[in-house]
Amino acid sequence: MYRYLENHRHKISNILETKTDYDWKKLAKYNRTRISFFQHERLIHLLVTLFVGLYAIISIYVTVWLRQVEFILVDILLIALFIPYVFHYYQLENAVQSLYRLDEEINKRINDADLV
Question: Rounded CA gap, 31 and 100, in Å?
Fold first, then answer.
């Protein structure tokens, strides 16, 4: 997903850098449609990350409270799963915000074209 997002960002950036006469409204619509897909993906990843973190905290609490050594393996697995989720969500969040900045740049081009 992150690679797909980066490819989209690169494509839009190239258009903004190289084109002077372009259908900016069509590009804005296309970009906003993609942003909405990425926002949905980001929301799903946020929920998954939060629930894995919550389950890790509950599992650690149960391990400490019940003093069961057998649950330590579950704790380690949940923490090992939670850390990559946090990094992936971080990348996804930053990439989507970069698309917002590209959308602002497209809007400037639309406004400039309307003034001419």
Answer: 9
